[in-house]
């Protein structure tokens, strides 16, 4: 490790007593110690202490580069803590870490929950909508929160979104002499806004949550009619084959429904939409699904806006495909990249037929009809046919 100038220390509610000899040595020798006010108090640091801003900004620590410096964080700094943010900006050999027990581990131990089955989230600097993809009946979730007021706001949010029956545990000062745990129902929780909570745990009850199958109900999305409808969307996603960590270009994104379902599978999406009102709908959908951290919305025209984008793992073109757009996209694709394009006009259908002849892949014509009223009876009402071409570069 060379001679690291930065030591990242996870501290618990037992303060200095719970730290290793190496951690206490680093604290003694540090010129500057960064942390929250609570962390500095637990370590007994006064004149050398500097309270970091909220949200955490790594640059304030980097300004001390080359001089003995300590960063204090709760429990395990590399689990929803400052450790990861710092390490991303440092070279190997610049830092060393001494992690403690995470708040998640302590909370699970107190509640008797199997940690491998628990969803662990940091909500101290993130919107409550981050919970949306994880909420399901009987789901066990542990969330880090700022304070008692944030816990009250979370309980209110859960109630407003149909999860008011959920059991809610508030946990503070875990592992220390002031440890306190109490159980509530979300729709009956009235917090003390001055309470310095560390975590909230919940066992979800109430609504059903979001299905994990492709093709979510159309009603879940904000749209102006420009929406890849549920059955067609399911077939498109099947061809796109989303995988965690992969990047999608969603060209002509409309409502962003393809991007939303891609991101729910653990990937990141770039939604490109020329119309401002539709771009606003995409942002609204990303927010309501808790996916703003996974979806980037670009308001502009393809292929012009594609030049500066990172190479994708998959591309969906929902409309507006022409030769120029195809050639631009195709030239940017790495081997084994998946491309799926839809056509509803005869002109674009002819282009897809030609591309299929030249590049292979699979060409399908999708015709779907729904039962509808016809006088006193019912009949089939056909939707506009969609031609789908899918290919691997």
Write up what this structure looks like.
This protein has 393 residues and is an alpha/beta fold. Helices cover 27% and strands 25% of the residues. The protein is built from 11 helices and 19 strands. The protein has helices at residues 21-29, 37-43, 58-62, 82-87, 103-111, 148-160, 230-240, 257-264, 276-288, 323-332, 346-359, and strands at residues 6-11, 32-35, 49-51, 69-74, 95-98, 119-122, 140-144, 167-172, 180-185, 199-203, 247-251, 268-273, 295-299, 314-317, 338-343, 362-366, 369-374, 377-382, 386-392. The strands form 4 sheets. A 7-stranded mixed beta sheet has the order 13-12-11-14-15-19-16, sandwiched between helices. The protein has a 5-stranded parallel beta sheet with strand order 3-2-4-1-5. A 5-stranded mixed beta sheet has the order 6-7-10-8-9, with helices on one face. A hairpin with a 7-residue loop joins strand 8 (167-172) and strand 9. The radius of gyration is 26 Å and the shape is globular. The chain starts with 5 loop residues before the first strand and ends with a strand. The mean pLDDT is 92.
